[in-house]
Amino acid sequence: MQTTAIHIRAHGGPEVLDAVQVEVGEPGPGEVRIRQSAIGLNFADIYQRRGAHGPHTAAPFPLTLGAQGAGKVDALGAGVDTLRVGQPVAYFQPGAYQAVRNVAASRVIALPDDVSEDVAGATLLRGLTAEYLLRRLYVVKPGDAVLVHAAAGGMGVILSQWARALGAVVIGTVGSDAKKPIALAHGCHHVIDYRSEDFAARTNELTGGQGVAVVYDAVGKDVFVPSLDCLRPLGMAINYGTASGDVEGFDLQRLHAKSLSVSRPTLRTFIADPADLQKGAAALFDVVRSGHLKLEVQRRYALTDVRRAHEELESRATTGAAVLVP
């Protein structure tokens, strides 16, 4: 079977993304073939396209970007008895920028009736990331003050809503006044424009000088080190993305006075065990079903329009989640 895929043959800008035709065979033992309807678009794809530091496994060119998608099961490989042909599913496995593909059944999640393929394809990676950030790496408790950077972005709106549902006081930062209403509408109690205000000083003011329990940072270079100044004693700074560039070395003694912790995690290790993948997805779907978390798709691009999709995401002018549509 011939299908459309997006390959890169070298690291670089959006211009290295090329649409090609590839052959997809029958699924092997333990695999399913998925005909995709929505392919997730994430900043991690840009890191991989650039060849930037990250958890990506080295692979030979041509390389197919992406790690998540959703659609319907098209065929079953030998030994797969937990899924059925025609079933709506989502998955997490590298090589997602392809209209039809084979995926290990252990990386596939059956979708409940109230979660669409479109939404799952756009938000699964972010939802699973929010699950481990809020419930496992740092366990958010009622009354905790938390700081969410890029609170109007695709990841920020999920983190903010879920943190609020857990009883946290949510402070968000954004890069422009235009993004403030989005952050306020998606869980934030307070929003700071970090380009025009000293966000650390303002955060300390909002918390009565106590600081926040945890900082969730997907921006990186521009905000990470100043974020240490608004953590409470025993607080944790988590850098899970580097939209503004990598965080360079800093003086470890900055952590000493308040016994602070710093973490640079990746989702892959938190869902490496298929059981953890399924539990994380179940927790995500539960909070969606409760009404505390609204998952939305703000932008849709044709798969063959992937260069424009990357350009707009890379500009950091966009908000919310997006999908590539085969």
UniProtKB/TrEMBL annotation:
GO molecular function annotations of the record: mRNA 3'-UTR AU-rich region binding; NADPH binding; quinone reductase (NADPH) activity; zinc ion binding
Keyword Flavoprotein: no
Keywords: NADP, Oxidoreductase
Pfam family, one: ADH_N
Keyword Heme among record annotations: no
UniProt cross-references to PROSITE patterns, sorted A to Z: QOR_ZETA_CRYSTAL
Originating organism: Variovorax guangxiensis
UniProt-recorded name of the protein: Quinone oxidoreductase
